[in-house]
Amino acid sequence: MSTTETTEAAKNDGAGEPTDSVTLYDVDHPAPVIEPPRKRTAKTPKASRGNFEMQTWLFMRLSGIVLVVLVLGHLLIQLVLDGGVSKIGFAFVAGRWASPFWQVWDLAMLWLAMLHGANGLRTVINDYAERDNTRFWLKMLLYTATVFTVLLGTLVIFTFDPNIR
Amino acid sequence: MSTATLDKNDSAGPVDSAENSASHLITLTLRIRRFNPEVSEDAQWQDFTLKIDPKDRVLDALHQIKWEQDGTLTFRRSCAHGICGSDAMRINGRNRLACKTLLKDINPEKPITVEPIKGLTVLKDLVVDMEPFFQAYRDVMPFLITNGNEPTRERYQSAADRERFDDTTKCILCAACTSSCPVFWNDGQYFGPAAIVNAHRFIFDSRDEGGEQRLEILNDRDGVWRCRTTFNCTDACPRGIEVTKAIQEVKRALITRRF
Fold it and tell me: In A88, B8, B95, B228, which residue has its Cα 20 to 30 A from A5's Cα atom?
């Protein structure tokens, strides 16, 4: 039986060289172990009541279905039909927003897309931001940007003036 | 000497097996992630070369190293037959049970890497702290909850009702699924697939009356809604439980309140 033992630390003389560590750690003074992020312990707070996560989960699915229709229809009208992208100008937008149907279409698309995207980013932040502070401020930034964009867009759709100079 | 077949085998047997015992062995390298907090704070890879039958399991290779080469190698195993769930480890980058993985099935020509499962604190070599895993398991109340007086006879259940949760009764709590979940890697507060599987086993049991309570627990911020359906858990389960399907069924039960 042949026995060859090679350690990577021995090959690359890095920080993990055994000679250094032997002096640092022993049976009475073991090295610190690496704890996983946000470990579950007996002290972890018990389940919080409320259906918020369920509602956002449902919203993602339902808004996704509606957005497929809204966005694909939008892209078709704007970019493919009737001369394609070259026709888009102030007059084209003014003409479309004269009709309440297209106002409602664009408003629904704005709100659903923004909330859908914001919620998706919220889950990404929840999954990946490790520290509580980072998580909190990233989410605040996200919510501010979302509210600003949604309100600005809504304002434009409702107060649009085709005779503006 | 009752049959001719046995006679032939007996006469040819000793010589053959003696020759075979040497010739069918292969040389393979096991690259193991070692960590000993009493020596160093860093984990490092260590290669072991051994001669072994390719039809043996990874656990046999680990035994051979521990018994014949390096007694300090530390890993958990209890029954060694795929039922106690002690020896889940990351073999060639996938969570498996060392006692159910044959060497010939994982390409013994290249070094086989063996690491502890991820997302839990490594205590030594391949041994991890399973406490957070079992804490999540306890939190879903994995026991029969009933109201009223105890019946004088057994609680009856139809075969169809039993079939409803049959898949999730197979869990052996090895943590292969939970420690393969990317959400769990990043946030240990998430209940994890195994706890949800064991909640599923009671939520869909017709004899159990605690379904509402368990659903309420899993409706939490760190409950089933954090599942991203990456199917890592289903791929990892050594018992072949359709874990992601079970999680989806709990989600559906939460929305429809029918279970």
Answer: B95
Low-confidence ranges of chain A (pLDDT < 50): 1-18, 21-22
> CA separation (Å) from A127 to A4, A61, B8, B190?
42, 19, 65, 10
Helical residues (DSSP H) of chain B, grouped into ranges: 4-23, 58-64, 131-139, 159-164, 182-186, 193-203, 211-218, 232-236, 243-256
> Is ipTM > 0.85 here?
no
What are the residue boundaries of the structural domains of chain B, listed by start? 4-128, 131-256
Which position has the token pair 């994890």?
B192
Domains of chain A: 52-159 (1.20.1300.10)
Contacting residues of A for B256, CB less than 8 Å apart? none
**Which residues in chain B have their CB less than 8 angstroms from residue A58's CB?**
255
Residues 37-66 of B with CB under 8 A from A: 37-42, 44-51
Residues in chain B with CB shorter than 8 Å from the CB of A52 are 221
Measured at the alpha carbon of residue B8, what is the angle toward residues B5 and B9, in degrees to the nearest 5?
Answer: 85
CATH architecture of the domain with residue range B131-256: Orthogonal Bundle (1.10)
CB pairs under 8 A between A and B: 132
**Which chain B residues are Cβ-neighbours of A123 within 8 angstroms?**
226
Domain B4-128: top CATH class: alpha beta
Residues B100-110: what's their mean pLDDT? 94
Closest residue of B to A58, CA-based? B255
H or E element, residue A158: helix A132-159
**Cα→Cα distances B23→A126, B13, B55, Å:** 55, 15, 13
Tell me which DSSP letter residue B32 carries.
E
CA distance B104 to B18: 22
